[in-house]
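BUG: 3D viewer hangs when loading the predicted structure for this chain

Environment: internal workstation, default settings.
Expected: structure renders.
Actual: progress bar stalls at 90%.

Input used:
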Amino acid sequence: MFFKLLFTFAICFFIFVIGTSVVMLPNLEQSREEARESQAYILSQQIRSCAVPAGTKDPWGSRFIVNRIGEDGTVAVSCGRNMMTPEKGFDSVDIWDSMSDPPHRKALRRKGTQLLLVCTVAALPWLFLAVTLLRERRRWNTTGAGCDAT
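Structure tokens produced before the viewer hung:
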């Protein structure tokens, strides 16, 4: 039974290593687009706090749009990768300084999901063997196999 467990552990480890290299390693670092979106978010916050001039260009080469809200409020908006924004509101790729779901949080969530997927796929053979061995052991104990009948 020890060798079955050891063999299954080796298979699970192999699956984990292969799964990690295929699913996670290309995505460990931010992709170019994720890095640009995160940089645009940081720049928009800096423009709002006046740490960076309002004429600053976003990572795609367009100028930030600074809108005044009321007397004291401003919103710095990057048009994003499509380099367009509607007259009112924002489209799906716009990045602004007060986003409720900033780009870096989306990337972290996606990477967490990928890691969970790899770990789950690697653990499945181990769980399958453990359940099989427990059922076999239970059947062995209830039938009395292996006991000396003298």
